[in-house]
Write a structure and sequence with these properties.
This protein is mainly alpha-helical and about 200 residues long. It has helices at about 5-20, 35-60, 80-95, 115-135, 160-180, 195, and strands at about 145, 155.
């Protein structure tokens, strides 16, 4: 099988998974130029999910940032998940852009304050906004160098790293939803939209 055929199969499989991730109708982001069907479409799932992440981090009270689902469970706290997401959005979007990670001095999984974690996550997501806006179908298939979590260097298509980032964000948003539900909070994806929540006028 040649490289082109392999890339086609890869994108077909991953995009099928991404179709299950809804784009937010209220992204709060500026409209993007039409840079090709794949890159234009990919901004939808990223923007919808990144907004859920930002809203979840903001909505969780600081007293619960140190919580785990159970006292004996060796899993990340809510705050550590937020920090993990900040770390990886910075790293993977920098990989995709082919530039040095702009976050050079902070491991956000070790930050313990809500204000520091919310700022770190929002800054990382804002950085990624620019990378997803920069992506075009023309540069999406460029091969880039990156590293696995274990430190092994790998080669992959630029858009592959950005698709992986969306999937990773969506995966950990599910964790944040669970923590919020345990504390009786409604996660952003289940909260009514401003239009639905607003009372009807003239009635």
């Amino acid at each position: 099988m040649n490289l082109k055929a392999l890339k086609t199969m890869l994108f077909g499989a991953v995009l099928a998974c991404l179709l299950a991730i809804p784009a937010s109708p209220q992204s709060g982001q500026p409209a993007q130029a039409n840079t090709g069907p794949l890159s234009t479409w990919l901004r939808g799932p990223f923007t919808g999910n990144r907004n859920y992440l930002a809203r979840a981090a903001d909505a969780m009270p600081e007293e619960f940032y140190s919580m785990r689902p159970g006292p004996q469970m060796e899993v990340r706290t809510f705050g550590q998940i937020v920090g993990h997401l900040a770390n990886y959005n910075y790293q993977w979007c920098a990989d995709a852009r082919g530039e040095k990670n702009p976050n050079t001095d902070t491991d956000f999984e070790k930050v313990t304050t809500k204000s520091g974690l919310v700022k770190g996550l929002n800054d990382a997501l804002a950085y990624c906004d620019g990378v997803y806006a920069w992506l075009t179908d023309a540069n999406a298939l460029d091969t880039i160098a990156s590293r696995t979590e274990g430190g092994r260097e790998i080669q992959l298509p630029r858009v592959g790293r950005l698709i992986q980032n969306v999937l990773h964000n969506n995966d950990h948003y599910g964790n944040l939803v669970t923590y919020m539900r345990i504390k009786g909070l409604v996660p952003p994806s289940s909260a009514p939209t401003p239009q639905a929540a607003a009372p009807a006028q003239g009635m």
